[in-house]
Amino acid sequence: MIRGTQRFGAQWSTPVRIITAVVILAAILVVGIMLRIGTGPGPAWLNPLAFVPAGILSITILFAPLGFTVDPVGIIIHRMGPNVYVRHEEIAAIERIEPGHLGLAIRVLGSGGFFGFFGAFYSRRLGRFRGYITNRRDLVLITLRNGSKLVVSPHPADAFVEYAQRACPRSDKGP
Question: Domain-by-domain residue ranges, the chain?
Fold first, then answer.
């Protein structure tokens, strides 16, 4: 059992950086075009709608994973909005997985690359799972005792798994 806490980063992969940049630039472009149309001879009702993309950006970033902490009581997934806290008693297994282990993951509800891949997903191999992923090279599968699954991407992933397994001695190392 550990006594201290250890913080792990949420390192963005190149695809996450590119998708995030493209979406932000597209949102700026849409806002500019809508404001331009709304202030010209076009319909004035477009002015308030111009800020919808900015609102969507603001809400999405609240749920993006910012980092991960393992402490003596559980694992914390840090976000700008409410953090996700998983107590060690809830954890059945923690294991490092390769990107191919997910297979083709279908996003049910969440972000598909904008600030990361997070939300509810489904894949044939894992079934339903919640993802908090910013880099597909650092994947860790956390299986809970109730059968739920979380896929996280702490950096460095191997150190996270080792530290989390020491913090939660009752969890299995995985298959």
Answer: 10-175
